[in-house]
User: What shape does this take?
Amino acid sequence: MQRDLTVKEALFEAKKSLKKKDFLKAENLFTLILEADPNNFSAKKGLQKIKNREKDAVDSTSKEPRLSAAPKDLVDQCLAEFNSGNYGSAEKLSAAVLNNYESVVISNVLGIVLHLQGRFAKAIEAFERGVKFQPDYADSWGNMARTLEALGQYQEGVNAARKAIELDSKTASSHNNLASNLRGMGRAREAVKVLERALELSPNLPEAHNNLGNNWGDIGDLGRALESYEKAIEISPDFHVAISNLLFTSFQIAEIRPEDNLIKAQNYGQVVAKQVEKIYEHEDKKVKDKIRVGFVSGDFRNHPVGYFLEGFLKHMDFEKIEFFAYPSGGEEDALTERIKGYFHGWKPISGQSDREVASEIFRDQVDVLFDMSGHTRSNRLPLFAWKPAPVQVTWGGYFATTGVKEIDYILGNWEVTPPGEEHHFVEKVWRLPNNYFCFTEPDLNIKVESLPALDLGYATYGCFNSLIKINDNVIKTWAELLSRSPRSRLFLKTKQLETSEERDNIAQRFYKNGIDRERLILEGPSSRHQLLNSYNRVDIGLDPFPYPGGATTAEALWMGVPIITMNGSHFLSHVGESVLTAAGFPQWIALSEASYIEKAVNLSSNFEGLALIRDGLRKNVLKSPLFDASLFARDFQEVIHDMSERLKR
Assistant: This one.
């Protein structure tokens, strides 16, 4: 059943989709209902209606007048433009041809180009046109699956990928697309099996090795994830997406020294530098009335980066600074619409080459350009190697060096980038005077309820972070804590726990450390409202290490839940310290596993004291620098001013 839907609710949505003629969504919902309730008459009837409609459509199509097939020379011209990387020309030519002819190949060319531009809905229309013209053309279904994954319509993507495989079981890319959609649904172990089949078909497909690494990472097997990324890079040394994923994973492994990760990051910088055709020069800059600041990110949406921006942008002095957004991802939502008004320019860059984007940023005369993704999904780090702005900074979306020497500064503060750790970065460290980032209070009406332990008689510890952060040492430490608190429970909630296989796996890992399954509460994903409300079932939060929570920790504090975090030794592992210091609770920062356990045990041994903390925690954190957007805006504006002044000198 889809997230948060009962059978009754899903049936209502399916019938509504059927009425709107959204047959793909209706079919998906009816199928899910039958998985949960195999004898559901209404779902069976609904599926039959869709099948009858498809049959009628095929019959009627054969009788209706149709456009003739495109001549081979036009197909070849479209392919030539596409294969040369002239996507703009390929789009125009493909659209013009399809006004007069039908061609499944040209429909797919158009769909791929639209996908690369982040115009996913239009891309789906192109692939559906190809399917209608030639239903047995596997590539249309495979390409559709890839775009549905980008839209977050994972079940529909699974259906499309399976159709592609049904038509052509020997195409590795279709298996790769199936795995990507399964991963989006939290079914990483199933995705691993699909990818193993993809690599049987095509052992040297770097995208499949990279995808395999992503899924091993989701499961929490970071060693295998690194092996998969390394194999992808061995096959394709300039595959910078795989290098980014390797770096993102390496920084989460405590045994890998920051100095060794720096070498890997510098290698990434060398790879992207080789692809640069022109490094922009910034002499003789005109004096402007306002400082121009650009943000490059794929996360201008309901995402921690989006929450940071929404919190402080409204407090900036727009008489002195004007902002430009360069969204690198195609996802937009209500938060996107709310923040667009703060930007003088909103210029989506998905699907554009680094050359095109760098040129546009240079023409916009941006003074300070921020990377807000680092080595995370949808990043555009390679374009920074072109140096399109005189001052370039990385901040907010990633907690380590980028390795790109053309990025001048990494923005930190005294907790995340303490003195003595400057050698971890290729960038110079620039420190904010107070907190590293600020959080926006969720616009949700959720009350902090009374301490669960008062009713249950035992403490419930909780962690709502991704399983990728819960390594063997974390499990060992938490198991020891549960042993010290004999009646306590541990509540884990995250996307990967949606599958019974993953719940069994995490339970087995705890069992090996002496903790029975009945001590664990394991739940999959839910809406943000339900996620936050679930903190009303938690007494004490536990931060994983060395990859702690950021937004997750702030949300727990807002819900009245104190968090125990671990002191770190590099940027990423310092994030928990930074959040608790800004919130005003440095006493919850542990210096070792032993003190981590001791702090949690001490909190859980005094329910009355814990209840008092809970009653006042939201009020206290909202008054702290952690949620003080105006303070952060002043600090941020001062940083921008000082950077631009240094540029003038």
